[in-house]
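Before relying on records like the one below, remember that each one covers exactly one chain. Contacts with other chains, cofactors or solvent are not represented anywhere in the record.
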Amino acid sequence: MFTLIIYSQIIAQADSFWSDLHILSLWFLAVLFDLMAFLLLYVIVQSLRAGGAGSAAEHARQRLERAAARVNRIDHGALWFAGTVLAVMVMITFVSVIGRATYKPVPDDITLAEWSLVLMVSIMLGTLQGREDHIEVTALSDTLSYRLNLYLRVFACIVGLAAVGRLCIVSLEEVPDSFLEITYGSIYELPAWPPRLFFMVGVAWWLTRIAIQTVMLPVLIRLDMRDALGTFDPLPLVSQTGDGEGELGELDIVDIATGEPGIGGARGT
């Protein structure tokens, strides 16, 4: 679907100065968009069945949990990749500082560090959204019931779809527009389109994860209405509690062992 749209609207109208690498990057975006759309469509189909009763609904919930396990592997891969990029960014800065004091800095060190930062942040947008590990202020929502919190999360996802969807459209338009641009301040006149491509991929994955949550939260609501929620918690597609995975700090480990409420809360962050 997106492959056809990007081909007809962008690739087929390519400017003469576009290189093969430019065209390949657009095909790369199109294929990724189609894969994300296929995942979303699969979740939608299974979610329509998972909220009911009977064996068919149970099988749908199991398929959603298997899909969550595959997405979990993607998230762990993104985490390792982002960590590697962070290490590269730190090494570039470190070597450049030492070189500036002894011989000369790494050429285009600032540009490469900026690229690394964009790549690192973009790759983690969808992962953090899916695991709901972002910072939240829950002073109001903590006073509400579990079901009202689910409705509140649905509303937040709808708002997020509108905002991130608009950002995704604008970012897609910026990718081909940047093919002729040079990164500001670059010594070797590095192109401006690679970081915009990274950002486009990250925003698209972020939008996909918000859409998946929007589709699956009504399933949790329907199951909660029938007191059939049980242990169904297909994280990282959506979290049953909205607390995400969180982190276990030292205080939380002691609290779990003693059974007392933790100072850091459920997330310990």
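Residues 141 and 149 are 6 Å apart (CA to CA).
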